[in-house]
Design goal:
By secondary structure, the protein is of the alpha/beta class. It folds into two domains: about 140 residues, NAD(P)-binding Rossmann-like Domain (Rossmann fold, 3-Layer(aba) Sandwich); about 160 residues, Lactate dehydrogenase/glycoside hydrolase, family 4, C-terminal (L-2-Hydroxyisocaproate Dehydrogenase, Chain A, domain 2). The protein is about 40% helix and about 20% strand. The chain has ten helices and 16 strands. The strands form five sheets. Strands 3-2-1-4-5-6 form a six-stranded parallel β-sheet, with helices on both faces. Strands 7-10-11 form a three-stranded antiparallel β-sheet. Strands 12-15-16 form a three-stranded antiparallel β-sheet. Helix 2 links the parallel strand 2 and strand 3. The longest helix is centred in the last third of the chain and has 19 residues. The chain is globular. The structure holds nicotinamide-adenine-dinucleotide (NAD). Nicotinamide-adenine-dinucleotide binds next to helix 1 and helix 3. The site of nicotinamide-adenine-dinucleotide has 33 residues, from helix 1 and helix 3.
Length: about 325
């Protein structure tokens, strides 16, 4: 595809996540056309009206409520439709409800567009990315889940705040499931080129082991804590999705922990989960098979196996 041809994005599901994502895309300057689709047409219509009234303050974007036929010509179709977690619910608890919704949504999208990149945000995102891959019949590089891009951001924020350094200078990844079995890849984490061990050796301000444990738990439980307080999470995930759209539309070759189909990397196959991945206009350009330490590898395998167990029950 030629340079700068990525312009149209459709968002299916205009709830908290979908409408906030639409807002981040509207103000991003990355796209020129944005379609919102929701089973609740009034909701989508209301969101479109609200967004459009901000138009004098941003670069022009055509925003409208659409039907599935309006997916035609979209470069990226983002799916954020379906049930969200209620307090105390895990992401996995949503699987049967949202897999059924996805079966109908994905088959509608592909009737009108079989060339776009499908970007899944609905939870459980890794399972639904796999469901989308299977139902769509799309090549594996074109089916992406937002995966642990959000968790990685939470990790970088919390570690950056702990050490008092700009989060953009903290490099590290949360890998595996976007959910309870996710893994902090401490062996890949670095601060200004220093491993965490090297940094801590010079710092000595805290109990390193305890801090690591606390940061990991805070990342893993972030959604539960936010949902307990305000009912849903949407700002940070919308920015994460905007970042993925940016890497695709600008053909950036950025490394992001998106979820996609693994085929032997890290000894894992036939499941979608997140590991550092090169993202560009093709969607997934390449999955990096980075040496992680043995305990992280074991935890990643465990995460993959727990996802596979759930997929087995879905009959897809
Ligand atoms: P929400 O209830 O506010 O919105 C969901 C929307 O989907 C509603 O507007 C609903 O009308 C619509 N919908 C339902 N069935 C539909 C169908 N068949 N076709 C079209 N639209 C349909 O929920 P939310 O807070 O926006 O969350 C959406 C999803 O995103 C949830 O599954 C949530 O867990 C997930 N989420 C993912 C991440 C992530 O990092 N991947 C982060 C936060 C939330």
């Amino acid at each position: 595809m030629a340079e700068n041809t990525f312009k149209k994005v459709t968002v299916v599901g205009a709830g908290f996540v979908g409408s906030t994502t639409a807002y981040t895309l509207m103000i991003s300057g990355l796209i020129s056309e944005l379609v919102l689709i929701d089973i609740n047409e009034q909701k989508a219509e209301g969101e479109v009206m609200d967004l459009n009234h901000g138009m004098p303050f941003v670069r022009p974007v055509k925003i409208f409520r659409g039907d599935y036929k309006d997916c035609a010509g979209s470069d990226i179709v983002i799916i954020s439709a379906g049930a969200n977690q209620k307090p105390e619910e895990t992401r996995i608890d949503l699987v049967h409800k949202n897999a059924a919704i996805f079966k109908s949504i994905v088959s509608e999208i592909v009737k009108y567009n079989n060339e776009c990149i499908l970007l899944v945000v609905t939870n459980p995102v890794d399972i639904l990315t796999y469901v989308t891959y299977k139902i769509s019949g799309f090549p594996k590089n074109k089916v992406i889940g937002s995966g642990t891009v959000l968790d990685t951001a939470r990790f970088r924020f919390l570690l950056g705040r702990h050490v008092g350094i700009d989060t953009r200078n903290i490099h590290g990844y949360i890998i595996g499931e976007h959910g309870d079995t996710e893994v902090a890849a401490w062996s890949l984490t670095n601060i200004a080129g220093m491993t965490v061990e090297e940094y801590c050796e010079k710092c000595h301000k805290c109990d390193e082991g305890l801090t690591r444990k606390n940061i990991y738990h805070e990342v893993k439980n972030a959604a539960y804590e936010i949902i307990k307080r305000k009912g849903a999470t949407y700002y940070a995930v919308a920015l994460a999705v905007r970042r993925i759209v940016e890497a695709i539309t600008r053909d950036e070759n950025s490394i992001l922990t998106v979820s996609s189909l693994l085929e032997g990397q890290y000894g894992i196959s036939d499941v979608c989960l997140s590991v550092p991945t090169i993202v560009n206009r093709n969607g997934v350009e390449r999955i990096l098979d980075i040496p992680i330490n043995d305990s992280e590898r074991q935890l990643l395998l465990k995460s993959a196996n727990s996802l596979k167990e759930i997929i087995k029950d879905l009959n897809i």
